[in-house]
Amino acid sequence: MRALSATNPACMIKKLLIANRGEIACRIMRTAREMGVATVAVYSDADAKALHVRQADEAVHIGPSPAAESYLVGEKIIAAAKETGAEAIHPGYGFLSENADFAQAVIDAGLIWVGPKPDSIRAMGLKDAAKQLMMDAGVPVTPGYLGEDQSVERLSKEADAIGYPVLIKAVAGGGGKGMRKVDAAADFEAALESCRREAKASFSNDEVLLEKWITSPRHIEVQVFGDSHGNVVHLFERDCSLQRRHQKVIEEAPAPGMDEATRTQICAAAVRAAKAVDYEGAGTIEFIADASDGLRADRIFFMEMNTRLQVEHPVTEEITGVDLVEWQLRVASGEPIPLKQDELSIDGWAIEARLYAEDPAKGFLPSTGRLDHLHLEGDRIETGVEEHDEISPFYDPMVAKLVSWGEDREEALDDLSDACLSVEVEPVRTNAWFLARLLAEPDFRAAKLSTGFIGDNQDRLIAPPEPSVDLLKSAADDLVLVNANPLLDDFMRRKLYGFRLNRSPKEEVLLKVEGEAKAVPLTVNDAWDMQVQTVVSDGDQRTYFENGAAFSVSPDRHDGTGNASAADGAILAPMPGKVIAVDVSEGQTVKAGDRLMVLEAMKMEHALTAPFEGTVTELSASKDAQVQVEAVLCVVEPVAED
To answer: What are phi and psi of 16, to 5 degrees?
Structure first.
């Protein structure tokens, strides 16, 4: 991590409560500690032993594990601040960070709100009203529909007028939720229903707006900062185009291909947007760019404003040398912004990758559980967990943000790629190997970016990683050499019947790699000098790490025929969650890929589909049911072969 600029470390705020959890809570605490500000953590049942709780000077329990009963209950958080004598509340991002009513309640309680004025949050909180405000301020906006008539008929008619493809967006949305791209009129009503359902669950508001879908879109955003003295500055732009389902995956600053003239215009527009709402504190103006002819100011349109610190703020810190959290605390204390616009400049390049506990090869399903082994490397690591901590099913499954800085883009990319390739996490699965593949993509390296990049290349990017021949040989040799393990003795005696001290047998060892049987040619000693990190998981099972992926390996004592078990048609819940839609009934015939039901978990919708053509013989789950991980939701019996 590059050293961030600091002025006089003293701060008017002496004790700060952080109304958040995980890596952002730990990030805020780090700066607060450097400024001599005491910190108070809040935590739910699930987070009783979490890292942010361990790092805080004090911690207050605020309720059960579900966020709706803890981190989203403003009264409990304000009470915790009063109880501990905290003078200020920092909301981090997510949860209550953009809740104007909570911000006002904090102020009414006589506490300092580390964030923008409640009126500024309200002004930018609804996307339709914000777009109108920006139009009035002379900020270019995407063509679309912002009307009050929310009927299906009117929205469908407006979509036809805009021209497909169109984007449906929840007016109160954020974080990629409540957004659906629609390619044809026939798909509009179903997409609208899904969007509204998700928006209602996430934001208690199912109103939407429509926007023209930009065909070569890039996501460009500008970091702005305002104070109570009327000053507003920008800290240049970030490119957040690499997204999956509207969720950012990799972010960088500055934006590739941004010339100085275009930068000047887009940053000036961002400052106008902030001034239009009398903005104070850290905020981000998000733009969508039509990059079909490169980045041009006349093809960059306002999307929305995030009235908080962003997840990707470290890349801006790395290229400007500014500690944005320090600035937040100073501005909230009534101080002016520490630097003027002409004192800010871009130095080098920074890139951030979001390391999630999820399995890209299985539809990016979140992977929860205990981090028995955790090893991360890199220039800057922002995390809220340590080895032996838990990834909870109740919250966002982020493990860490990996951030790299370089003199130029190529150097930053190389460093971040090395960081992703070196990730070791077990038994929880991560997207590290997926991130490494993204960073190695020739078009990405050449800065040929768009928000559809991952979707366009998804089949190749999410193909399950395969262990190298060297890894398999090393695993085979390792298992041969575990003579102290009596479970392997008979197996190894049978497989190494030709073993002699003076020669290496050429035999096959049957291994199970990620549950799949593999026959590995074995030559004892061939792989002894290989540097392969291993972790003994349980008995004769080992985990090998390679290129950001983890491979569980054990001897295969079965015949390897791969015959299907009777449970192959059982549809299991991949994680704890709520069934929000059931699309089939018992006795119904389904085809491979047909949607059976939808599970809401980890703040996302997950469609469960039929694995093959067959008949639904058992339906164990109903709409609105809460289910646990691996619960049998339904059973599909395959069509009998003639």
So the answer is: -125, 130
Task: Verify whether residue 308 is a known catalytic residue.
Answer: yes
Query: Before 465, cis peptide (omega within 30)?
Result: no
- What is the 3-class SS of 218-256, one letter each residue? EEEEEEEEECCCCCEEEEEEEEEEEEECCEEEEEEECCC
Q: Is 445 exposed, middle or buried (0-12, 13-18, 19+ CB in 10 A)?
A: middle
| 228-242, 314-328, 448-462, 513-527: least confident range | 513-527
**Percent above pLDDT 90 for the chain:** 68
Is cis: bond before 165, omega within 30 of 0?
yes
- Give the tens place of pLDDT for each residue, 563-595: 333 346 888 887 778 899 999 999 999 998 889
Of the listed ranges 209-213, 396-400, 420-424, 473-477, the one predicted with least confidence:
473-477
pLDDT given for residue 513 in this prediction:
81
Catalytic residue among 122, 308, 429, 437: 308
Q: Please give the structure tokens belonging to residue 146.
A: 């912002």
Q: Return the exposure string of 64-90: e unless at least 16 CB atoms fall within 10 Å of the residue's CB, then b.
A: ebebeebbbbbebbbebbeebebbbbb
Average pLDDT along the chain: 88
> 124-145 burial by CB neighbour count: b if 16+ within 10 A, else e?
bbbbbebbebbeeeebbbbebb
The SS3 of residue 390 is strand
Instruction: Kindly report, residue by residue over 610-637, the tens digit of the pLDDT.
Output: 888 999 999 988 998 888 877 889 999 9
Q: Calculate the CA 108 to chain-centre distance.
A: 34
**CB atoms near residue 551 (< 10 Å):** 21
Q: Which helix (H) or strand (E) holds 324?
A: helix 324-332
> How far apart are alpha carbons 596 and 613 in whole angstroms?
12
Backbone phi, then psi, for 448, in 5-degree steps? Answer: -90, 85
- In order of 99, 100, 128, 133, 367, the CA distances from 125 in angstroms are 8, 8, 9, 12, 32
Sheet holding 589-590, edge to edge: 570-572, 632-638, 614-619, 589-590
Go through 305-326 and write b for each residue having 16 or more CB atoms within 10 A of its CB, e for each that does not: bbbbbbbbbbbbbbbbbbbbbb
d(CA 464, CA 548): 12
pLDDT exceeds 50 at position 559: no
